[in-house]
Amino acid sequence: MDPTSNVATKTSLQGLIERIGSEHVERRLKIEVEHEAQLFGQGLILFNVENWYLAPWVVRTALKLTGLYGRARRNADHIVVKKHSVAFANLPPAFDKFTILHISDLHADISIGAMRHLVNVVGGLQYDICVLTGDYRGKTYGPFEKCLEIIDELQAQLKGPVFGVLGNHDSIRMAPSMDAMGICMLFNECEPIVRDGQRIFLAGVDDPHFYRADDIEKAASQIPSDAFSILLAHTPEVYDRAMNARFDLMLCGHTHGGQLCLPGGIPIKLESALPRFMGAGSWRHGGMVGYTSVGAGTSLLPVRLNCPPEITLHILHDGQQR
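Predicted structure:
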């Protein structure tokens, strides 16, 4: 990054710097410049296959040789709306049936068909808040203007407050534009949500997978110990720290559920360091409920097998009333 570009970047990020501090912003920018296309090391797994320039060609060729490419392309465009109902003993009564629309892993600029479908679907859904759990850009590096245009189109169809966190495909330089769209981007921060005088807390951390920029403890420190709390993180890989920080619900994505799965939805590879049962859908760890979205978009290529793209409506219930 040349000096002129560096100054322009810091100017555009000034509001974010004032909010979360220059150390976080400068550290993430440094990794973006030096390591964002790195194949080995840096993140939580040894080999970052998404950064391998031959990976799309290998996947496309394998699917064509097996006669599955056309089916995989069609599957990638048809998003399923899932519902996940879960009860909590400590959920404030005012939040009974509180509904969260969870959208993850858009990879908007390489998942054009899925994005068209998504924009048409979300307008008819009923929910209280929407959360986005990262990976808005197709590649892990390079331009992001096209994906921001698509997100702006999607945001226009969303209702109520919208919150988001960044993933391992995202540049921190995207955050000011997303904030300007009305998406509250969270960087190891939390926000209270108030309903009929009662509160729950929504926290969000920066990408834990590649940038390792998350600070779960900092986000949790802003939450009263007896409060009901939700954590947004791009990846479920930090499940143990999230549980130890006493979050009640963790919403995440990143794995794509494997994206190309064997019959029965069995993932071949999850690109994550975590137990396989956490790779998709609902799971529990100690006293914490988790949900890993398989995502609305696709990585490398717009293809899916035995793992349809999804958005999820999480319906929270007061366990005392059930």
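Summary: The two ends are 57 Å apart (CA to CA).
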